[in-house]
Amino acid sequence: MPKGYWIAFVTITDPARYAGYQKHAPAAFAKYGARFLVRGDDGETLEGQPFHRHVVIEFESKAEALSCYHSPEYQSARAHRDTACTANIVITEGLAR
Question: Among 18, 33, 46, 61, whose CB has the most other CB atoms within 10 angstroms?
Fold first, then answer.
């Protein structure tokens, strides 16, 4: 079964409020077996809108990635993020092996 991935582009606009997200989100990621592959601020935007932070998170499946996103734990953390950043998040399936 192909892995599932979150691909996120984030620009933090309120670091103090975003800290609340950073405090609460790890519980959801741990519960769903998330593995961070990329979490960096030094990306080079060659096309499209630039973002401050780039994140790629691997899950056992797309279903697990979606379950994590929709979980009460993540949605609670997300409430801290809503007014603290601009984000584009995609959940997708990886290549079959």
Answer: 18
